[in-house]
Amino acid sequence: MASLGRRIGDLFRSLQLTLVLSIVVPLLMFSGIAIYIGLGAVEKALNERLREDLELVARAVSGPLSNALVEKDELVLGESLKSIFQIGRISGASVFDEEGNRVASLGVADSDVTNSVSAERVIASGELGGAFRRVDGESVFSQFTPLVGEDGRIQGLLQVTRQRSDFHDLVASSRWWAVGIWSVLAMTIILVVVLGHYRTVGRHVNGLMENMDKLAPGRWLLATPAAGPRELRQIHRGIRDMGRRMGDAEAEIEDRIARERALAEQLEYQEKVAMIGRVAGGVAHELGAPLNVIQGRARILARAGLPDDQQRHLKDIEHQVQRMTTIIQQLLDCFRHVPDSRRPLDLSDVLRDVLARASEDERCSRCQLETQGIDQSMPTRAEPLRVGLACLNVIRNGCQSARSRLRVTAHQSDDCWEIRIEDDGPGIAPEDRDKIFEPFYSTRPAGEGTGLGLAVVNSVIKEHGGRVGVEESSLGGCRMSLYFPRETGV
Fold this sequence. Notes:
By secondary structure, the chain is of the alpha+beta class.
């Protein structure tokens, strides 16, 4: 979900740039090019008009000037040049012979055209020509017209010059003014697009993205309401609906996993109960009678007045028979279910009875026993003998592990009663805390434990809907907590 949000965020974060690059920039480029080309076309048209005007003036006086040049009549040449200034706005006029030497001149004009490409071209082709050039430091249009005699031979050249008009200069310079104005307009448009996008779209997208970044397992609902344009509100509603479905799916998956885990644990427990229950039943049935016979014969021999060394062997036999009988009984206790015998009772009564029995145990007589909170009313629903057996097993284990102190306390923990048994012994390593409830697993040396006591405890607590916790005690040893569901109305 987070990666999806980042991809959408990248898309919207590039929307401003996309708008500018794909729409605004092409429009501005086309408009700028159009303005520039249009101004160039206007300037070109003015140049063409200027050339045509000069060409008309030159044609009008080319005949008299040709005759005057042939006849070398300087007076006619002068008058003809003066008449050019009366026809139109002319800056200068000059007459050159066929070798390019100036014969007569008025105003702004070249003194020598022997090196002029335009002049050479006109002499060679016999056609009119001209170009912009600087003459006497001024920018003028120089029009060359061939002076043709009656015999059709080129006698010389007429140069007519004209300065750029004020309007022509304004149009030429206005091209750069247009570029400057266009640049300012372009920046203004881009700024308006960027700010307008942020105000109408961008800030809503940023807010949506901030909320989407907070989406995570267990927090699938958007915290803020939909805002912005219709499309963004639709996206917000879509993400909100998707988050709601994700939350429902996550809750359903977690519930299904919890149910499957509970069913798996229950199935595993039931399979283990069925398997070891059959073993325990078979052991009790097959070994019970032989053990009773062995124990009975040992007692008969003990009363026969045998020597002391033989009496010691008989006591060892009787002790081992008693140990085997205890193991069989623990197996039966571990896998016996009595759900129909549960009844409302007070755990404090069970604890007082268990502590009285524990005080008679030789293993507990050497420990300083501390109690706290066991006199309070702790209503629950349980089978008293099974609960007492579980508590007694844990207390005896604590007595056996303790160096000098054993503490038994009762607390209310949420909807359960917690019975804590703590000792100042060596404790239980974290890696062994899950294994100690397995049948026949023991942390004590061989021969000092059957590994069934805590299995009995775990079986009893599960029968009553509780749980067992193992942690480190504040006394330095092990703290074992038995949790029993609370019962109301007892």
